């Protein structure tokens, strides 16, 4: 199933010079992972405290792009500069789940039916769980779409941008999260199928 994740290699090529510079400066993959997670928490707190202001919603798409860049960089630092570790793997997977929850739960404050937002955040966590389940069952880490981490950032970031310019579209928040919740359930099924196919 197509996913924005498939563009990752091109994104990494753009970031590689910066990644090399960071490695030479002594910055580690784990430090980048922690910065991305802490930044996400702070972004979420800002959205929570000022959900009625346009500025944090306008900043969110830029932050999500930065977060994707940091996620790509920590992976490159780990793989290409011999920084892979068990701790790094834990921080990477936990950081993704914590960051998603911190950034997307504040959408509850502009939604007419917050339960859809909560369900979508739960399913976002479940998609990541399904992804990491692969290696424990003898398969590869799964990144199947249609609503993986990068896809969520694109959809929710785009909606946040529109929300910043046109606050009245907040009435569509519940519908958006209901649709993406369905797509994330589909994503979980696709990842499960991928794991099972790898074992046959």
Task: Kindly describe this structure.
The chain is mainly alpha-helical and 200 residues long. The protein has a single domain (4-199), classed as Up-down Bundle (Four Helix Bundle (Hemerythrin (Met), subunit A)), CATH 1.20.120.1760. It has 7 helices and no strands. It has helices at residues 8-24, 29-49, 54-80, 86-104, 114-136, 149-165, 173-199. Helix 5 (114-136) runs parallel beside helix 7. It starts with 7 loop residues before the first helix and ends with a helix. The mean pLDDT is 93. It is an enzyme of class 2 (transferase). It holds the Pfam family CDP-OH_P_transf. Keywords: Membrane, Transferase, Transmembrane, Transmembrane helix.
Question: Which terms summarize this structure?
Answer:
200 residues; mainly alpha; Four Helix Bundle (Hemerythrin (Met), subunit A); transmembrane helix; membrane; CDP-OH_P_trans
Tally of individual helices: 7
What overall form do the CA principal axes indicate? globular
CATH class category label: Mainly Alpha
Helix-strand topology string: HHHHHHH
Terminal-residue CA separation: 19 Å
* Secondary-structure content class: mainly alpha
Look up the CATH topology: Four Helix Bundle (Hemerythrin (Met), subunit A)
Please summarize what this structure is:
This protein is mainly alpha-helical.
Question: In terms of topology, how is this protein built?
Answer:
Elements: H1 8-24, H2 29-49, H3 54-80, H4 86-104, H5 114-136, H6 149-165, H7 173-199
Helix pairs in contact: 1-3, 2-3, 2-4, 3-6, 4-5, 5-7
């Amino acid at each position: 199933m197509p996913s924005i994740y498939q563009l990752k290699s091109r994104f990494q090529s753009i970031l590689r010079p910066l990644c090399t510079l960071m490695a030479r400066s002594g910055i580690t993959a784990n430090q980048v992972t922690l910065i991305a997670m802490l930044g996400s928490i702070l972004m979420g707190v800002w959205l929570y405290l000022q959900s009625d202001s346009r500025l944090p919603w306008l900043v969110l798409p830029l932050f999500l792009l930065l977060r994707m860049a940091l996620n790509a960089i920590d992976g490159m630092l780990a793989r290409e500069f011999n920084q892979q570790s068990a701790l790094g793997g834990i921080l990477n997977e936990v950081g993704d789940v914590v960051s998603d929850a911190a950034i997307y739960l504040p959408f509850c404050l502009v939604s007419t039916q917050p339960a859809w937002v909560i369900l979508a955040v739960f399913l976002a966590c479940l998609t990541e769980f399904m992804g990491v389940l692969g290696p424990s069952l003898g398969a590869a880490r799964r990144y199947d779409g249609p609503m993986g981490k990068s896809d969520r950032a694109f959809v929710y970031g785009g909606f946040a941008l529109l929300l910043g310019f046109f606050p009245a579209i907040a009435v569509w928040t519940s519908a958006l999260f209901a649709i993406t919740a369905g797509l994330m359930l589909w994503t979980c099924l696709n990842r499960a199928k991928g794991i099972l196919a790898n074992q046959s």
